[in-house]
Design a protein that fits this description.
The structure is a single chain. The protein has 17 helices and 12 strands. It is an alpha/beta fold. The chain folds into 3 domains: about 45 residues, Transferase, Pyrimidine Nucleoside Phosphorylase, Chain C (Transferase, Pyrimidine Nucleoside Phosphorylase, Chain A, domain 3, Up-down Bundle); about 250 residues, Pyrimidine Nucleoside Phosphorylase, Chain A, domain 2 (3-Layer(aba) Sandwich), CATH 3.40.1030; about 90 residues, Pyrimidine nucleoside phosphorylase-like, C-terminal domain (Aldehyde Oxidoreductase, domain 3, Alpha-Beta Complex), CATH 3.90.1170. The strands form 4 sheets. A 4-stranded mixed beta sheet has the order 1-4-5-12, with helices on both faces. Strands 6-10-8 form a 3-stranded antiparallel beta sheet. α1 runs parallel beside α3 and α2 runs parallel beside α4. The chain is globular, with a radius of gyration of 22 Å.
Length: about 450
């Protein structure tokens, strides 16, 4: 089957057959399709779209291009969560041990940071000794014994997606709903899941920057996943401000550990707590571990309050090569930046807007993310103590604190954060409560 004829068919707006899609995926894996041909088909799909049956066929073909995990005789449901990416999004760090403490089994295949967004894999790489690429045998052992294991994607899981994505990344075809759907789900299906919840971020710090785009993506993921045999639900959640108070790999790991230990009254940042519980509750319902949302949240709160979730997290870290007392002594292992500077507000007023993408890019420029795939990350750097929308500040009060490797990079980040935060006198007394009560879970699909 000629590659150029498959490209011609999609360029002309035709639906590709299952045989054509399988020929394309074989070409991705064995190299018989050139980079130019892969790019051409990606652009044709970007412009012409894909029907639901085509997207299911592409997802399944890419899933079957490598190893497919299985979990025979697992004593509970195998579940996972995936996020489309945000700034300060450390939900996975808390969700996996919470669900495990409630009877689920979570083999979470995580990714590295992409663009302005942070990656769960990078946050776990900040833990000394932690093995994000364990053998299949060790992964199976940890998931069965602990209930969760957060690892990175390996080359033998959906390798066709790895090659296709690398081409899309440099040919401006990333923002295609069917291709995003197939990319995410091919890896999740390869993980042998029995239930998936998708966190579709929406706002100025998300790839889905409009409600229409977020809804289209959520609907596509749920429909294609269910069409491929994986029960899935999606929540659309707000990303018009940083999630939580920390941004940066070691800093976010510290915030997650503090949450699991119960150091902050009421679960710490209310928005972060709500997103974590909303997504985790959906997984308990999908897995038959709770009969309704009220019971699911009660179980999650018990797992948090009793320390069971923190204990699962600590056991997971130790089982994958990290320090056995990370939960008790995170400051002893998570590297700290040599320079910490406050970011003063330039005027008094209410914080009414954040350019969240710009804040994420400021952390990338500090060294906390990658400009190129080959870049090394500085796990120490980032922003802490981020103020939330609705907070009232006097001139000179800290918007946050910059954690940097040197003075020059700290000052650049300081200016970037100041430019990304809007203070206004428009919102006055009484309005702060309205800001802080704003919905973080915007919609549910599935």
């Amino acid at each position: 089957m000629l590659a150029q004829e498959i490209i011609r068919a999609k360029r002309g707006g035709q639906a590709l057959s299952e045989a054509q899609i399988q020929a394309f995926v074989r070409g991705l894996v064995d190299g018989s399709w050139s980079e130019g041909q892969v790019a051409a088909l990606g652009m044709a799909v970007f412009l012409r779209g894909m029907g639901r049956d085509e997207c299911v066929a592409l997802t399944l073909a890419m899933m079957r291009s490598g190893r497919v995990m299985s979990w025979p005789d697992m004593p509970g449901p195998v579940l996972d969560k995936h996020s489309s990416g945000g700034v300060g999004d450390k939900v996975s760090l808390m969700l996996a041990p919470l669900v495990a403490a409630c009877g689920g089994y979570v083999p979470m295949i995580s990714g590295r940071g992409l663009g302005h967004t942070g990656g769960t894999r990078d946050k776990f790489d900040a833990i000394p000794g932690y093995n994000c690429t364990p053998s299949a045998e060790l992964l199976n052992q940890v998931v069965r014994n602990v209930g969760c294991a957060v690892i990175g994607q390996t080359g033998d899981l959906a390798p066709a997606d790895g090659r296709f994505y690398s081409v899309r990344d440099v040919t401006a075809t990333v923002e295609s709903v069917p291709l995003i759907t197939a990319s995410i789900l091919s890896k999740k299906l390869a993980a042998g899941l029995q239930g998936l919840v998708m966190d579709v971020k929406c706002g100025n710090g998300a790839f889905a920057d409009t409600p229409a785009f977020a809804d289209e993506l959520a609907q596509s993921i749920v429909a294609v996943a269910c069409g491929a045999g994986l029960p899935t639900r999606a929540l659309i959640t707000d990303m018009n401000q940083v999630l939580g108070s920390e941004v940066g790999n070691a800093l976010e790991m510290r915030e997650a550990i503090s949450y699991l230990r119960g150091d902050a009254p009421g679960g710490g940042d209310a928005r972060l707590h709500e997103v974590t519980f909303a997504l985790a509750a959906e997984l308990l319902l999908l897995g038959g571990l709770a009969t309704d949302a009220v019971q699911a949240r009660q179980q999650l709160q018990q797992a948090l309050d009793s320390g069971a979730a923190a204990e699962r997290f600590g056991r997971m870290v130790a089982a994958l090569g990290g320090p056995a007392d990370l939960i008790e002594r995170p400051q002893a292992y998570l590297a700290a930046a040599p320079l910490v500077l406050p970011v003063p507000a330039l005027r008094s007023g209410r914080l009414t807007a954040q350019q969240t993408r710009a804040i994420g890019l400021a952390v990338v420029e500090l060294g906390g993310g990658r400009r190129m795939a080959s870049d090394r990350i500085d796990f120490r750097v980032g922003l802490s103590g981020m103020r939330q929308l609705g907070d009232r500040l006097a001139a000179g009060d800290p918007l946050c604190f910059v954690h940097a490797a040197d003075q020059a990079s700290a000052e650049r980040a300081l200016a970037q954060v100041q430019a990304a935060c809007q203070l206004s006198d428009v919102c006055e007394a009484g309005d702060a409560a309205a800001w802080q009560a704003g919905a973080v879970v915007l919609a549910r699909v599935g």
